[in-house]
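lol ok so funny story. i was supposed to be doing the assay writeup but got distracted and ended up predicting the structure for this chain instead. priorities right. anyway since i did it might as well share w the group, maybe its usefull for someone
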Amino acid sequence: MTRARQYFNRHTKTAPLAVFRILFGSLMVISLIRFWVHGWIEDLYINPKFHFHYYGFEFVEVPGQWTYLLFVLCGISALGIALGYKYRVSAILFFLSFTYIELMDKTTYLNHYYFISVVAFTLIWLPSHVFYSVDAKRDPTLTAEFIPQWNIDILKLLLAIVYIYAGAAKLNADWLLNAMPLAIWLPSKFDIPLLGSLMHERWVHYFFSWAGAIYDLTIVGFLLYRRTRIFAFTLVVIFHILTRVLFPIGMFPYIMICSTLIFFSPGFHERLLNYLGILIKVPLSIFQNGKLHYTLSTSFGRIGRPVLIALVVIQVLFPWRYLLYPGNLFWTEQGYRFSWRVMLVEKTGYANFKIVNGETGRRFYVQNEDFLTAFQQKQMATQVDFIIEYAHYLGNHFTSQGHEHVEVYVESFASLNGRPTQAYIDPEIDLMKVKDSWVHKTYILPLNE
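and the output, tada:
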């Protein structure tokens, strides 16, 4: 306890947190503009007739054309974070609006969206605005050149959790012994300059598989050690630029590259702010004349530490929930999401839904394209919670159309990481009698290894 008190009373310069705030907010603005320009707001949220919901968040709905306004609010609040303007309000609005967007349709789930929500929630409780910000310039009494060390370390810890859990998830037979799913994905990248001719080589598939696992498991240690930090950051840049070239994963590589700068010394970040000050003609020196230390005088400061400790505990424990379920995790995907399992699965399949009159036995098959987009069909066919929700939607739809005693069955088949296609969901189960929950789904047929 004494050591804990000593640690929480330890201070460091605020510059790293200010740089993190500026880069994070700026990248979020770019990401939202990119999403808008590509037309994805309309394609993914407005045009689809049906949206898949996260368990427990069924109340989150797409607000039609108001979705554009939601993105505007999210973008303005991200800009507020970058500038440090009305910082607390901006951070709260960004977290709420971005997370709402993320929850509108489960089809678009990505690990890096979840990471952004976690970081956004963390920034609400950190004093990122007390140095090199509009708020600090307008109110010099807010300026603090030093903050508690844990305000920096918690961001390092969250990054460490992402990397280490991603690396641990790669320690499986598919990834290490079969180079799957990279052996499926990489040959299609034959047109990449310089490296394209190598993408069909088996040794390249194994090299990327093993190098990826080793990188994820060790990079944080190298970043923490001052003598290897430059080398480690060089690896970070190479790794994430390479993944950006090979795979369509959006802004995530740039977010991770910028985030890992938090491991560098305060002096390094002050130099960055000094260069920025020269560029935008806002000298760093005007923020170095305020009070020396930030004090936990506000309600945010007093409750922020226990809230963020709870967040870290959840991040450490929640990924292990998969141990509560039997079967191959990649096949059942029970406990798969929100656990930093990155690019481990290639599942393909199809699902034919059969509507049956429970009394007469009359039946017909559904044309999925009448209700779902092509992207939604692809995601639905191999994920059990998607199948359950869609089955209930179909049952309710056809009941409202006048059909009686509606029962819904699915004939689904899937292939995992190059294995032969096999039946996925028990075709004898009336899915209208099944509800999604965290209880083990016994109607998932076992994977034939």
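The chain has two domains: 10-322, 346-433. The beta strands are 11-13, 144-148, 291-293, 347-357, 363-365, 406-416, 422-423.
back to the writeup now i swear
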